[in-house]
Amino acid sequence: MLRNLLLCGLLAGLCGGLLATGFARVVGETQINQAIAFEDSQYKAQGLPPEKPIVSRSLQSSLGLLTAAVVYGLALGGLFALAFAAAYGRIGRASPARTSILMAAGAFVVLYLVPFIKYPANPPSVGDPDTITKRTALYLIMILISLLAAIAAVRLRKVLSERWSGTTATLVAGFGFLLVVVVAGALLPPINEVPKTFPAVTLFRFREASLGMQLVIWTTIGLVFAATAERVMTGRTILPRRKSNAPVPAVD
């Protein structure tokens, strides 16, 4: 069973990576090119030659983007399948499909949206190279806090649901999660290395594309895994099969 679920997760991650590649090509590439042009203009203003990339821009935006998105999607899909196998039946009585969709939505909020609000994505030309270790560490800390707060909220809801209604327990647990991440976000140091002269529209569009790319990946993983896991665990599909009176052909 676990092997089949892992295959479902890898398939879902592959589909998510492919769709995210197309989304990034259509929505995000323009902002990256504008950010690179801004960086080159900054070098030119200082009388310095622009940095030459190790990998050509055309390769980065084609094969490089596809490879990165697919590998990322496969990794998320595999981890999602393992998390589903551990959580299914322990956090509720929902069907495999419903559990998958709820888990994907929760993962998007907990693992990406909450950290993104505190430390939003920046274009390639924005940021001090000397602070990349610090920025990465703070971002990972925010992810860890959000994840631990979500786990605690799920357990709290389970305890409260024994005394209160399911809706009340969910609201209290959700408020607890929100309180923890808001306090953590307020205590963690801010990072703002965006130059004042950087185009605001380009920055906004880039962050919008980054958010949309993650939304595409997690939505695809949730839906594809829901369809395949439902079949694996129950032997039936989400959509009812169309009845047919045609005779079933014999198998030689």
Note the topology.
Blueprint: H1 2-45, H2 57-87, H3 96-118, H4 132-160, H5 166-187, H6 200-234
Helix pairs in contact: 1-2, 1-6, 3-4, 3-6, 4-5
Describe the structure.
Mean pLDDT is 86; it is low at 248-252. This protein has 252 residues and is mostly helical. Helix 1 (2-45) packs antiparallel against helix 2 (57-87) and helix 3 packs across helix 4. It contains six helices and no strands. It has helices spanning 2-45, 57-87, 96-118, 132-160, 166-187, 200-234. The chain has a domain at 2-49 and 58-126 and 194-234. It is 73% helix and 0% strand. It starts with a helix and ends in an 18-residue tail after the last helix.
What value does the Rg take, in angstroms?
Answer: 22 Å
Uncertain stretches of 5 or more adjacent residues: 248-252
Order of helices and strands: HHHHHH
Spatial shape: globular
Distance between the termini: 29 Å
**What is the oligomer described by this structure?**
single chain
Number of helices: 6
β-strand percent reads under 5%
**Helix- and strand-based class?**
mainly alpha
Average pLDDT number: 86
Number of strands: 0
Write out key terms for the chains shown.
252 residues, mainly alpha, globular
Q: What's this entry about, in short?
A:
With 252 residues, this protein is mainly α. It is built from six helices and no strands.
